[in-house]
Known about the structure:
- Helices cover 58% and strands 0% of the residues.
- It has helices at residues 18-25, 32-38, 40-53, 63-74, 83-103.
- Helix 3 (40-53) packs across helix 4 and helix 4 (63-74) crosses helix 5.
Amino acid sequence: MNERLDERCISEMRNLGPCCERDLSAVGITTAANLKQIGVEEAFRQLLIGRRQRGLEVTCCNAAYLYALHGAVYDLDWRELPEDLEQRYKDFAAEMRQSIALRGRG
């Protein structure tokens, strides 16, 4: 099967808008295909690193950001994630925010 790449802009994906598009574009994730290839958790990690490098806060990027990214990749409403996946994303977001925030100190 010859599947075409999804060249939509990030802000054209479900659950995502211009702010998310700016954060992702700043780290080279500019299309739906890029986001799908990189994956939800790696995109979030890169987004946090990019925000830190640009001198922006990372504490504002919580699990809801991961819910939205997941919904965009899998074309789901972000509020429809199973509880176990929500918890995984909550834990991952907290761990990443703390790790990235600590890198900026010192």
